[in-house]
Design goal:
With 508 residues, this protein is an alpha/beta fold. It has 15 helices and 10 strands.
């Protein structure tokens, strides 16, 4: 058990005696005691300026969205004949909207710039506002026009989400430039500090930058370019004060838990510093994780991924309906593309290739032909020029690609015939990349989990680099999707796919 030394000031080491021969010294985390009513002079009570600006911008955006939604609803429902009662209701709804968003934690700084969490708070606020209006109407026996509510609340919700999206875009650009970041002190063992630091900083848009690390006494931290880390004998709270951190991130460590972690949280609360604890679970989305109190303990529950039943039925219905609508919408593009492929090169219009679907079932995937007819025979002579990963063959300037094929690949038009595979049930709109039988033969035991769901026309691989990904990165994204998929995630990926296709990143 790790020793903690508590005192009013900075703690002294519990035991720094030289270790006797063969004696194993226990690591010592040094945490000052929390004295009620005493706040250190270095405590931080004021929020960063960017947080305050973001909050006011969010409030202004939500208010403008509510005024827009109410005004449009009044105009559509009543035109120029608006009675006084609806004018008063229209004036009260924006205030009620801001209250609902606040109750749904839409203005908490920890969610600023996170994207999904902010959007969820807006959606929950819209549901809450609808319920409030319905209950108030029933309780006061007043007849509120349904058409007014049906127009006002959804439009307010959509406008507020658009305003938050604009804010998210703005803060993302600043974070890529190293601004509007939360300074983080990571506490843990060597490998845990390294891992947690990598995960926190691999996505700058999340807003975390590690400025220091705190290790047990005696641990040495060695990583090139990380001079700020590795202060093995630095007290946690002294590091908080010295580095002016906003967040203390504790990596999984049984030696810093229980009452000691609780006292640390009290000390950080006095300084206005946020405490986050990594449970050590990777590649698991938030909806599958819940905290439940059991016997006085807060236990983390990990739900099983959805691989069958109702959610998959809903996904199949969604795929068929949206796939049919998309197929009808792009029918003119399909017709023009088919004519161009036929006129510009010899061979069939469609390229059919065997791929592996859900549960290992094979199917014939359809694509517009973008290469010459003898492309497979010429592949061996180009193998030395491979620019793809160690499994998939890719070449940016592949001489086998036809002139029209380059444009089809750049904008992913060659993939559109796979909508037919979606309607057949072989594929989904969103899912892992459809693998070749040769790839499946090389799968490790864990890799086979990606076949728990249908392969997709698009997926995380499509919006995360496409052909520029390594084999390990591609497999990691596929497994992440298979374990955490949801309709909301599918909608988000479809939205990002449009941007990825227009940007044509990694398409060759």
């Amino acid at each position: 058990m790790t020793e903690f030394v508590m005192s009013e000031g900075l703690a002294e080491p519990a035991d720094l005696r030289p270790a006797a021969s063969g004696e194993r010294r226990r690591p010592v985390w040094v945490v000052p005691d929390v004295v009620p009513g005493i706040v250190p002079r270095s405590a931080r009570f004021t929020e960063a300026r960017w947080v305050a600006k973001y909050r006011w911008a969010a409030l202004g955006g939500d208010l403008a969205a509510a005024l827009f939604g109410v005004s449009l609803a009044l105009l559509i429902r009543f035109g120029a004949q608006i009675n006084l009662g609806y004018v008063l209701l229209g004036a009260a709804l924006p205030i009620a909207w801001l209250v609902c968003v606040a109750l749904e934690r839409g203005y908490e700084s920890r969610y600023f710039g996170t994207g999904p969490e902010e959007f969820r708070s807006i959606i929950r606020a819209a549901v809450a506002l609808t319920a409030v209006v319905a209950i108030a109407s029933y309780a006061t026996k007043s007849q509120v026009a349904r058409g007014f509510v049906v127009v006002a609340v959804p439009i307010t919700c959509l406008a507020a989400m658009f305003a938050r999206w604009l804010l998210h875009r703005q803060i993302s650009r600043r974070r890529f430039a190293g601004r509007c970041m939360r300074r983080v002190l990571v506490v843990g063992r060597n490998d845990q500090v390294r891992t947690l630091r990598r995960h926190l900083e691999e996505r700058p848009t999340d807003g975390y930058v590690v400025v220091a690390g705190c290790l047990p006494r005696g641990d040495a931290f060695e990583e090139p370019g990380s001079e700020s880390l590795g202060r093995a004998e630095m007290d946690i709270l002294a590091a908080v004060d010295d580095y002016g951190v906003d967040v203390v991130a504790v990596a999984t460590d049984p030696e810093l838990a229980g009452h000691s972690l609780r006292k640390l949280s009290w000390a950080l609360e006095q300084r206005g510093v946020e405490l986050i604890v990594s449970p050590g679970i990777v590649e698991v989305a938030g909806p599958r994780i819940s905290i439940r109190p059991v016997a006085g303990l807060s236990l983390l529950h990990l739900e099983r991924p959805s691989v069958s039943g109702g959610p998959h039925v809903l996904k199949n219905i969604f795929d068929r309906v949206v796939g049919c609508l998309l197929l009808l919408g792009v029918a003119p593009i399909l017709l023009v593309t088919a004519v161009l492929v036929k006129l510009t090169s010899r061979g069939p219009v469609l390229f059919r290739q065997t791929r592996v679907g859900r549960g290992g079932e094979q199917f014939r995937m359809l694509k517009f032909r973008t290469m010459v007819v003898d492309a497979e025979e010429r592949k061996a002579e180009l193998h030395a020029l491979n620019e793809g990963n160690e499994v998939l063959f890719k070449l940016r300037d592949d001489p086998r690609v036809t002139r029209i094929g380059r444009y089809l690949r750049r904008f992913s038009i060659d993939e559109l015939p796979q909508l037919v595979n979606v309607l057949r049930g072989d594929m989904s709109l969103v899912g892992p990349r459809p693998p070749l039988p040769a790839e499946v033969a090389r799968y490790a035991l864990d890799d086979a989990r990606r076949m728990l769901v249908k392969p997709g026309l698009t997926g995380l691989w499509q919006v995360s680099g496409r052909s520029d990904l390594t084999w390990e990165e591609s497999m990691r994204l596929d497994l992440r999707y298979a374990d955490n998929w949801s309709i909301a995630l599918d909608l988000l990926i479809l939205w990002k796919t449009a941007r990825a296709v227009l940007g044509s990143d990694g398409a060759y």
